[in-house]
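Task 17 of the worksheet. Students: predict the tertiary structure of the chain below and write it out as structure tokens. Keep your answer in the requested format; marks are given for formatting as well as content.
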Amino acid sequence: MAEEQEWANLLAEVFDKLTEKHASITYDFDDLEMKGKVEKNGKVVPTGTVSLKGRLTITAK
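Model answer:
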């Protein structure tokens, strides 16, 4: 399974659990860096880097 799909599935599961409980969750990021890559024709190709610094709160009501 592609890494992007794994992240999408994880986020969907978290959102479902939050919705069931009417809860919220907060993530604090201090210079989190995620480097993307894909494999194309047997070679690894970088797709870019995402850097996060700050707070993300997800609230379900």
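Marker's comment: The chain has one domain: 3-59. The chain has a mean pLDDT of 84.
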